[in-house]
Amino acid sequence: MSLPTPDPAFHWSVEPWGHALRCRPLESIAQHLFTTRQLPLRADPLTWTQAAASLGSTPDQVIRVKQVHGHSVRVLVGEGTTTRDCMWDYSGDSENLWRPVIEEAPKADAIVSNQAGLVLAVQVADCVPILLADKNSGAAGAVHAGWRGTKEGIVDDVVDVMSHEFGTVPQDLIVAIGPSIGACCYEVGEEVFEAFRTSRAIDRHFAQWFSRTDTGSLRLDLWAATRDQLEFSGVPRNQIHAANLCTQTHSDIFDSFRAAGKNAGRMAAMIRVRS
Length: 275
Prior knowledge:
Mean pLDDT: 94
Shape: globular
Oligomer: single chain
Strand order of the largest sheet: 7-6-5-8-11-10-12-16
Order of helices and strands: EEHEHEEEEEEEEHHEEHEEHEHE
Largest sheet: 8 strands, mixed
Number of domains: 1
Radius of gyration: 17 Å
CATH superfamily: CNF1/YfiH-like putative cysteine hydrolases
Structural class: alpha+beta
CATH architecture: 4-Layer Sandwich
Strand content: 25-35%
CATH class: Alpha Beta
């Protein structure tokens, strides 16, 4: 199999089930990986055992959520011998109230924790998978960001929640942006531009994330949007690393909804909280 060349900050690793992508700067802080379509997570749930094993873990340590293209953040706070499990529905005002998680499969699009040993995971098939870790405390997060989550500023919310719950300083975060649909392929409708224009979470610079094709169609650069939002939140730009691999362009390697439609599989972005 011929693998595409990622940004130099990333490298391919060979796993028992196939190839995984890892980010070198993040690797020094937390075990993590981005899977490929070689691991059929959607077709065979038992493959989560294999994915967890690649991080030296077991399926019972893997924490997931029901992803709904929103910006709620699930938080698992290690407090001595107990874990507080709550949800943040961040509103951007002074009433950043959390609520306990009571659903078996809570609806959220990001997970953060400081509980050592937990593996945080999100699934994607063109949307942006983001993994991040605090190099001082070891707290970590996994984020699923499509255009709707990006429009709502989900990465800003994750940084805010980690700062509140774990005392994370944004300058201490290392971030890896995994394979997703690139601006080369991601055509969107005019309603998407309008949704960004009217969002409470987006500043006036949002227009630079959009471009026009020769035929006048709109394209959206989610990688640039994610980088800019993280930098605006205080994360140094040289600590934000993007694989720069488009899932639709390389649909032989990655699962892509744009390429395969409803038959598309799902890939995972997974990070293990440091001991």
